[in-house]
Amino acid sequence: MSPYSHQPLWLTKVNQALAELCGWLLIFMMLFMCIDLITRGLSKPLYGVSELAMFTMISITYLGLSHSEETHSHINVDFLLEKLPTYWQCLLNIFISSISVVTIGVITWALWNNALAAFESKQAIAGPQPILLYPVKFIMTFALALYFVQAAINGYSHLLNFHHQRNSQGV
Fold first, then answer.
1. Averaged over 159-169, what is the pLDDT?
2. 14, 115, 161, 166 — which has fewest CB within 10 A?
3. Which InterPro entries does this one have (predicted)?
């Protein structure tokens, strides 16, 4: 984390709570998978269990993004970045953050529109009891919106760090 981070306490608490929720959801996903395997092995499959496991896995993935961004624990290829002078590292971090924020923003907006369309059309997975898709799409949208906010805060921290680097070098 940059020494010039402006991370709001509420966002840190939300990120930590969602990271913990992801751990609990992982347990439920494993239970769903075990139930699915056992009932299929007994030739009495339960409808919707594998779909619930899939929705849970999607939720785990999206809900953990913001915490991963906050703690910088996402996958990062930085072997070249480390070889650059600090000034260029800061510039590259600002550039990457800018691209990330714009991309995440566009994806969040598109997913929001998709979630609304799924809600309005009652989009569902067909079967004996249709499973509505909009709840998981709204979860994904909420999680991506948090990810967007976190990426913007990290980008702002990179910008402040760059400004500090320039001032300390007398540029």
1. 81
2. 166
3. DctQ, TRAP_DctQ
H or E element: which one contains 132?
A: strand 131-132
Question: Which tokens go with 166?
Answer: 């320039």
Note the pLDDT tens digit of each residue in 20-58.
999 999 999 999 999 999 999 999 988 888 888 999 999
Assign 122 to helix, strand or coil.
coil
Q: What are 90's two structure tokens?
A: 């800061």
Distance (Å, whole) CA 76 – CA 104: 17
What is the C-alpha to C-alpha distance for residues 93 and 86, in angstroms, rounded to an integer?
10
Cβ 48 vs Cβ 131: under 8 Å? yes
The domains of the chain are located at: 9-72+82-167
Rounded CA separation 39/36 (Å): 5
pTM of the predicted structure, to 2 decimals = 0.86
Q: Which H helix or E strand runs over 5?
A: none
Distance, in Å, from the CA atom of 91 to the CA atom of 36, rounded to the nearest integer, reads 50
pLDDT of residue 74: 78
- Mean pLDDT of the residues in the chain: 90
